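Slide 14.
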Amino acid sequence: MRKRISLLTAGALVALGAAITPAHAADPVFTLAGPAGIGLRPHPGQSGEPQKTSVEFRIVNDSTTTFDRQSTFTIDLGALKGVADVTLAKNQGADCKLTAAAVTCKRWALWTGESTVVDLDLSAAKDSKVGATADLTVTGAAEGATFKAATTKVRVGGPDLVLERAKLKAEQKPGDKQNLSIVFANEGTDPVDGVVLEMRTTHGIDLVEQYDNCSYSDDTRPGQPWNTGWSTVQCLLEGEYEPGAVYGVDGPLTLKAAPHAFIDGLTYAVHAAGDQPKAAKNRTFASAGKPAAGNKLAAAKQAPKAAARSARPAADLDPWNNMQEFDFATRNTADLVATGVSLKGKAGETVDASFGFHNNGPAWVAYLRSGEDVARTDIVIPAGAKVTKVPAGCTGVNADGTHREQTLGAPRYFCSTGHVVGEKETFSYPFQLKIEKVVADAKGSIAVGQWTPEGTTGQRWDPNHANDKAAFVINAKDAGPAPTPTTSTSATPSPTPTGSATATATPSASATGAGVTTNGGGLASTGSSAQLIALGGAVLLAVGGGLFLAFRRKAGAHA
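Slide 15: predicted structure.
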């Protein structure tokens, strides 16, 4: 009997132990990523030296926690023998080693999000043949984790679309028109079956014509300055584009400076059909008039040469030369007008009021490169009142404009616009104030202008500084009409514009009197010699940073 009881007890303890032992969480799964394919310029390259093409492999940690164990990543180079030579890119660090057989990298932790595993530079091997291919695969291993491998197909040869820079005027007036001439060549080894012409313009530049084989869309996302407010046109130019041939787009493409144009930009590019950037999910088709049936844009060969056929399409040998960019400085002004406020109240009462300004135009202002604020609103609080609620985007400062730790109860506030001020746009910053003591005709002020350490100063592109400042009065002695404060129900996360102009931003361009003159800020004019810069993951404009991100030099889909 004792033995039976002992066995039952043991069984119960085993069951209990199983019940209280915590279950192990499933091992995390990490995804490796890289471009689907890359093309290599045939040896020895156009300059007589092997031309390198970069490939980046990345690791994606989609979880919310850091994986804190060592991971090892390996790329077998055996398949590349006779096809491509490999070197580590510069500034790679000491955690990656290259041998003739493999690349090995170690990571001591995998942070959340996406990070680089390794950057490689590839060039066609000396005796490689056009059309030779090999797979480059990266794998990962770590205790307690699973990795999904990524493979990039490497090919010697491919198409190479090269876009010629159009001759455009950088300085213009509202209403000016000029033709955008599109000429491109295929300087690669393979033909291209269909080309997509993509043109992107900021809010102040319009494309006059519309064609049946083009799609028209607007990017309405309010996110990063280089993403907001662009209009995109993509046109499918059907046909085969042969190696060694030059083509010109047959049909007018007219750019027009809108009445509100000021600091604007244009990017235009050619891509092999299927390789063009995909439209953002928040873009909507433009509501402009439908083009007439049969009105199609096409490209005509200008200098035909013998075509070299390829069994399969390949990646563009040099995506950097597929695109051109241009900056426009339109002679225009924008009049920012501060809005006066008059309040009445008894001691102990709490009142709501909105402070801000209105853009009387005619120009919109967008700092498309830097994303810096276009203007600051400077609010001085009258005596006897204490601010009890402050909207996002506004900061309390001391009376002399210096830094202050406490936001509430400050004697003065600075509020920022963001990187875009649209034509005819109003900015309102809702505050709440408590009247602690009745002071007859207590006066403060509201001013708008360019940021300075002390507050604001008039913008050089604003033609009328007399209306940059307005009165803020509590319990005015004058019984005459006074501005009515806007009642706010809650603080807004950012200034609430009533206009619709949204575009991307740039370090400030300056202007004087009746027009703009670039000074290294803003979307500064680079003239006809502006260089190609990266687009996408990241294309940046030649001066002061990037207009937008359309593709990356090392771009590639997750494998």
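Speaker note: The mean pLDDT is 79.
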